[in-house]
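ugh ok so i messed up the first submission bc i forgot one of the chains. this is the corrected input, ALL of the components this time, i swear. 598 residues overall. if the numbers dont match what u have on ur side tell me asap before i send this to the collaborators (the ones from the other lab, u know who)
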Amino acid sequence: MSLQELARKSVTYRKNILKYIVGAKAGHTGGSLSCVDILNVLYNYVLNVSPETAKSPNRDRYIQSKGHTVEALYVVLADKGFFPESDLETLCKYQSHYIGHPTRKVNGIEQNTGSLGHGLALSVGTALAAKLDELTYRVFTLLGDGELPEGSNWEAALSASHYKLDNLCAIVDKNTLQISGPTADVCNTDPLDKKFEAFGWAVRHVNGHDFQELTEAFDSLPFEPGKPSLIIAHTIKGKGISYMENQLKWHHGVPNQEQYAQALTELEEAGMAL
Amino acid sequence: MAELNTLVADKKSLANLDVFSSTLQELASTDKHILAVTSDSRGSGKLVPFGQKYPSQIIEIGIAEQNLVGVAAGLASTGKKVFAVSPACFLTARSFEQIKTDVAYSNNPVKLIGISAGVSYGALGSTHHSLHDFAALRAVHNLIVVAPADNFETEQAIRLAAQTDHPIYIRFGKKAMPLLSEENQQFEFGKGRIVNEGDDLILVATGETVYPALQAARQLENVHGIQATVISMHTIKPLDYALLTSVAAKGCPILTVEEHSVYGGLGEACASFLLENGFRNRFKIMGIPDEYTVTGSQIEIFDHYGLSEIGIADMALNLLQKHA
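and heres the new structure output, hopefully the right one now
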């Protein structure tokens, strides 16, 4: 898929994220908009997985550690045909499987997450199994910068390098904001690259909204043979909607009808410009 | 009553831990999907020979129990038969959320093996005692919770666990265990074993307290002519409600015994079921009271809290006198 096609996909994905969050009157809007370009590239460019191969032992795995931005994952999985997009009209509603955090009840979702700091250890185990079975699949996990103070991340980071898991790639959606404020103020994890490098990882920085930088980074995996790879994706919370960008209140804010209309107008204009 | 197997205090008898280790070795010899994952507990889990024989089937995580369970869940998601081995106190406390979310909620069929459970690490103090694990893990949906009483139950539990595609927690202690009876034919998760029959008293015990309960029953019979039914309730969850119903119908007093806090374990599980179903048998829960335990060996701690043959027999007599 060309970079322009990826960009057009993201416009559609952003529209759908807002559409279903507005319909549900719930959701993690800001973070879904910050990570959706990464998910777009993963599912449309990187991952060797499809609805037909969803149970294949050698499929690539994606585990979303920052489970609260599941709306971004849902719209991408629907677009890839894992389930009908109309299912998302039930998002967060009574007895829906499409709840506010990933669950394996939804086709295409590998692991239940939502508690933060779980995805990396799950990914280490899954990547280790590939090594043991001499399979070629790769494991990708998306971490939020706000979840990194959980100690389980660092336990898992040690294991990943100890077992030389160069089939594992973690991506940090570094949008620099979490529910209580700037991540640097809540618990500063910088310099993140140096910390992971000290833990034995190979690290690169990218603009998490630049499809060329994202695809080039994924094309370069593993960054070093014998080391797990970390992509620090610098992103903007609420990306694509002017009044949401870098605004804390959109962590789990839901647009009203007027705000929703403005967001759609902005996205239409962005799409036209492509 | 049938004579107990006299392997009892014989040093030649095996700990459940040894049986776990040897059974896992046997299973691994024919099944390359069996994995032992440990948190620096290769030695304390008696897994050194396993690691020597099957070096590609043992994974060391280091002292990082959250990661142990998360990695085990990831491995299990690919079809591996993962035995995550760690001291019960840490496995169930430090990793509770990983057990809940990564194992039980995600239905990754990890076999969680809690070693040196209860007060097995007696002298090491309360940081090393697991007296909360039944209470905590009973409350986790989609998890089988098992405490084998003897070598037979341990071997059967490990074999069944390897075959079952379901998350499970199995805990046992360190010391040598006698066989509870000569006829060790049937074992099934969720089905308690009657190891002695009688109509005067019901003793429901689990794990390493079943043996002193059985000894107490023998003493009660020999000295007082009291005949007790003794049940090894090796599966705490799902609890064997059918068996509880049938024995409670005798109408006699019920005494539960466990190497666990009196809060939230076997006793309370039995009590709630019986009360909710209309049984009004005289009832007493024996376990570790709501305190941090005294220092001592496992046996000394059992004695201190009355979880010995004498203590259980005394409590039974007390309960029967009140009943009379």
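quick check: The two ends of chain A are 15 Å apart (CA to CA). that seems consistent at least. Residues 61 and 118 of chain A are 15 Å apart (CA to CA).
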